[in-house]
Amino acid sequence: MDCIIREWDIKDKYKLAEMLNNKNIQNNLRDGLPYPYTADDAEEYIVSMLSADKTKTFAFAITLNDIAIGSIGVFRCGNIHSRTAEMGYYVGEPYWGNGFATNAVKQICKYIFDNTDIIRIFAEPFAYNTASCHVLEKAGFQFEGTLHSNAVKNGKIIDMKMYALVKFNSCEGDN
């Protein structure tokens, strides 16, 4: 069964709150999310993504049978990096290990490369998040290096890894 990425809908707020009310998910995301994460927090996020600049923010729900099981977004950088974008994603813990994240990454990269002038998409997973690194590798991203002591998460200084997919080197037709 394949997942589908689609625009967020306000009705997704309860599933979003359920997913993000999980420390195993939040431990792999950047800081700034409230915990506990409520339906009101989720609604605020969804509204902000739906009203964001559609040339800079590409945020989608990852869905299975039209039920949100995760989130994926690509965010255009600025200035001399305006044709580069950063990607972030997660899938709810009950859905881990089923290929949904890899499928969603491939879908959003194809969408970005087909519909925008962005030529490079990068992601910076925490080095300890080997599952996320594996998702990127399976989706065709190239490992570009380790960003040593690049972040502080849960009070610990940690490394991150840099992965990128460049439009001209990507397998755009692969899904």
Automatic annotation (TrEMBL):
<dbReference type="Pfam" id="PF13302">
    <property type="entry name" value="Acetyltransf_3"/>
</dbReference>
<keyword id="KW-0808">Transferase</keyword>
<protein>
    <submittedName>
        <fullName>RimJ/RimL family protein N-acetyltransferase</fullName>
    </submittedName>
</protein>
<dbReference type="InterPro" id="IPR016181">
    <property type="entry name" value="Acyl_CoA_acyltransferase"/>
</dbReference>
<dbReference type="InterPro" id="IPR000182">
    <property type="entry name" value="GNAT_dom"/>
</dbReference>
<dbReference type="GO" id="GO:0016747">
    <property type="term" value="F:acyltransferase activity, transferring groups other than amino-acyl groups"/>
</dbReference>
<feature type="domain" description="N-acetyltransferase">
    <location>
        <begin position="12"/>
        <end position="165"/>
    </location>
</feature>
